[in-house]
Write a structure and sequence with these properties.
It contains 13 helices and 20 strands. The strands form four sheets. Strands 5, 6, 11, 12, 13, 14, 18, 19 and 20 form a nine-stranded antiparallel β-sheet that branches. A five-stranded antiparallel β-sheet has the order 7-10-15-16-17, with helices on one face. A four-stranded parallel β-sheet has the order 2-1-3-4, covered by helices on one side. Strand 3, helix 6 and strand 4 form a beta-alpha-beta unit. The longest helix has 22 residues. The protein is globular. Bound molecules: zinc ion. The site of zinc ion has 7 residues, from strand 15.
Length: about 400
């Protein structure tokens, strides 16, 4: 890919993605396989006035080794320096950039049971810091094509060609192949208008039905709004948490969903693919799951904590989205979620609550914003998905018809 285009993309992430403020620290999480793009991105961050840019390098293969050879006890330890790091982040509030280049199957040989135990043990220590930082800083997830990932998406061509093709697909779907900054100003405007319209309807329920058997009724929160595209941190700084982003989403009422829902795309969770699955909800919680592939992992996912059995997101994405129209299955949630209506199990979004700055974490819990150590999106959109909304005064409004917006 041409350097000039990549530079523009790096600038898009730094400027529209996290919107770095003069003198702000930036923390980038990136795969070890992406030194060139990370170097470009770091430079763009400094050009925008970043005070300091820190890169946290990740390498899945080391996590796999740790999970095999480290004792559970050693994995569960949280040393003082790691706690100090979280404390520092809570105080300094750096802008956070997550560059995703992961192999969708990269963790398939890991001991997922031990990793899940580790996550549960550490969550108790991490939670106060996560809550304290919530909504206070800018963050952005964007993607760069890793070799293994590209090979998975385009298995029939050489690796270097696959990487190039995945670059093209990432830049196209991220509206970053030409004038990205202007594109995103327009795109954000369109998404915000859609939110305004949806919020004016005062919806109480969303009822999903589809030819694949999905029949699910989700209750929404009275004081929650639909959000999309750019958001504002509590400091009033506008940022785009996801590049790409096509979804209009809200946080549903925790523990208020009934019915059955079928997945329409594989779910990449903890570096392994869960495929062809369904979930049944009863009394607001997951009561049954079934998957053709990695069912055990799905079961483990919904057992991480109580909140993992409840919904934390309802996102509306037309079937006719640029990502879906590309015809590519990305095996990566950032892309596949933006190609399809989806739900998430786990933590909800407190910033969907009107005037969220006024409330405490306890208030959000009481209102029914779900809390959990996980937030996992799964895709349910198809060309036969219908969604009927029911307003608070009992009117029924068709929101989606055959997978696309009908309002
Ligand atoms: Zn989403």
């Amino acid at each position: 890919m041409k350097n000039k285009i990549l530079k523009e993309y790096a600038k898009l992430i730094a400027k529209k993605g996290v919107n770095i403020q003069k003198g702000q620290e930036v923390w980038i999480t990136a795969g070890l396989d992406q030194p060139k793009f990370v170097e470009m991105l770091v430079k763009e961050c400094y050009m925008l006035g970043a005070k300091k840019v820190v890169v946290d390098w990740q390498y899945d293969k080391l996590t796999v080794l740790d999970s095999k050879y480290m004792s559970q006890e050693a994995m569960n330890e949280m040393p003082e320096w790691q706690i100090a790091k979280m404390k520092y982040q809570t105080e300094v509030l750096p802008a956070r950039i997550y560059l995703d280049s992961d192999d969708p199957d990269g963790m398939k040989n890991a001991r997922q049971d031990k990793l899940a135990n580790e996550r549960i043990a550490k969550y108790a220590i991490r939670k106060p810091y996560i809550d304290a930082m919530d909504n206070k800083y800018q963050w952005c997830i964007a993607a760069v094509p890793g070799r293994e990932w590209a090979k998975k998406v385009f298995p029939d061509i050489s690796v270097s060609k696959a990487v190039e093709k995945l670059w093209e697909a990432i830049l196209y779907t991220s509206r970053a192949n030409c004038n990205p900054i202007e594109n995103w100003i327009k795109h954000n405007d369109n998404l915000h208008q859609k939110c305004k319209l949806l919020n004016s309807l005062q919806l109480k329920y969303l009822h999903y039905t589809s030819a694949n058997g999905t029949d699910l009724k989700v209750e929404l929160l009275e004081n929650a709004e639909f959000l999309a595209g750019s958001e504002k941190s509590l400091q009033g700084i506008e940022f785009n948490p996801n590049i790409p982003s096509e979804e209009v989403f809200t946080t549903p009422k925790a523990g208020a969903v009934e019915g059955i829902v079928y997945s329409t795309k594989p779910l990449s969770y903890q570096g392994a693919l869960i495929e062809n699955f369904y979930i049944i909800f009863k009394d607001g919680k997951v009561c049954e799951v079934s998957a053709e592939n990695n069912e055990e992992l799905l079961r483990q996912m919904v057992s991480m904590d109580d909140g993992a059995k409840m919904l934390g997101e309802c996102a509306l994405v037309p079937y006719d989205s640029p990502i879906n129209n590309s015809g590519i299955l990305f095996y990566n949630t950032l892309f596949d979620e933006n190609a399809s209506c989806h739900l998430a199990l786990g933590r909800g979004f407190s910033n969907c609550i009107k005037d969220y700055g006024k409330y405490t974490q306890e208030d959000f819990d009481k209102m029914g914003v779900n809390t959990s150590m996980i937030h996992v999106d799964f895709m349910i959109g198809s060309d036969t998905l219908d969604i009927v909304g029911e307003t608070r005064d009992g009117r029924k409004i068709q929101i989606f018809k055959n997978g696309n917006w009908s309002i």
